[in-house]
């Protein structure tokens, strides 16, 4: 087993060119396109990964890591949204005057809205929102760290990443 790992490392080292390192780093950094292009954090890395995976196992490794991490972040975000959004709407609708809605009145009043009505559910939703903010900050810094590692020719595996691609 140890001999196969050394052979694999030698194969990876033989394929490490400046272009492969740059493409691997660009794979990680391309996930920031999510802020400009919808689903850019999936589409652009897939395109770059398909370009480089045939000629380098190093680029293939980093492409898999990038997509695994982005899909994991998506699942974690979805889970937090499933927790926070219904609680937010439940709290909002609990304080809405439905007689005004049913009678089609022009003014809506939120009744009995004070901070003493905050329940444990709202605290769970607030915790979910804070976890989401922490998740996005961690994603930002981890992507930069992974890009630096790739540019230096090192393999990097994201923490808390589910392995969808092996």
From TrEMBL:
<keyword id="KW-1133">Transmembrane helix</keyword>
<protein>
    <recommendedName>
        <fullName>DUF4870 domain-containing protein</fullName>
    </recommendedName>
</protein>
<feature type="transmembrane region" description="Helical">
    <location>
        <begin position="73"/>
        <end position="93"/>
    </location>
</feature>
<feature type="transmembrane region" description="Helical">
    <location>
        <begin position="32"/>
        <end position="52"/>
    </location>
</feature>
<dbReference type="Pfam" id="PF09685">
    <property type="entry name" value="MamF_MmsF"/>
</dbReference>
<keyword id="KW-0472">Membrane</keyword>
<feature type="transmembrane region" description="Helical">
    <location>
        <begin position="121"/>
        <end position="148"/>
    </location>
</feature>
<dbReference type="InterPro" id="IPR019109">
    <property type="entry name" value="MamF_MmsF"/>
</dbReference>
<keyword id="KW-0812">Transmembrane</keyword>
């Amino acid at each position: 087993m140890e001999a196969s790992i050394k052979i694999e490392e030698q194969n990876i080292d033989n394929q490490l060119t400046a272009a492969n390192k740059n493409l691997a780093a660009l794979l990680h950094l391309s996930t920031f396109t999510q802020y400009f292009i919808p689903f850019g954090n999936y589409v652009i890395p897939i395109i770059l990964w398909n370009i480089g995976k045939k000629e380098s196992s190093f680029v293939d490794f980093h492409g898999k890591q990038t997509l695994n991490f982005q899909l994991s972040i998506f699942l974690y975000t979805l889970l937090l949204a499933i927790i926070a959004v219904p609680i937010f709407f439940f709290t909002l609708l609990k304080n809405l005057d439905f007689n005004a809605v049913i009678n089609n009145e022009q003014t809506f009043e939120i009744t009995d809205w004070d901070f003493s009505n905050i329940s444990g559910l709202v605290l769970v939703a607030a915790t979910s929102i804070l976890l989401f903010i922490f998740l996005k900050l961690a994603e930002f810094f981890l992507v930069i760290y992974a890009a630096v590692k790739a540019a230096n020719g090192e393999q990097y595996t994201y923490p808390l990443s589910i392995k969808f691609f092996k």
